[in-house]
Amino acid sequence: MASVPATVPELRRVLRRWLAHNGAVGDAAYDITIAFAEACTNAVQHAYHGGHGAIDVEAVAQEGEILITIRDYGTWKLTETGDSDDGGRGLQVMQGLMDNVEVASNVDGTEVRMRRGLDALMVPS
Questions:
Q1: Are the C-beta atoms of 120 and 28 separated by less than 8 Å?
Q2: Residue pLDDT, tens place only, 5-26
Q3: pTM exceeds 0.85
């Protein structure tokens, strides 16, 4: 998908439908959507420094878990201390809402992998 701000609401809508199709409901589905949107927003805002680029998104429901990967192909601007220049709390938000969040960055871009167990998400039978 194109790395532009209008992409994030569209991706959020698609994820909500996908989560519902895979049995995710209520607060947990909402939490996953917020964490996902935060990761996508970070990629859009920071990876290409206002230029154009792409982000790839993958969501998988397997073995009782939701696995989501968001990948950009840009480079994040770092401050003199080596920290990201955003000053936000996006990573803490993602970590608080998901069971596991991993961020891997290199010269080819950044990949955010998030995992959340489905136990609390499944619609009761």
A1: yes
A2: 668 899 999 999 999 999 887 8
A3: no
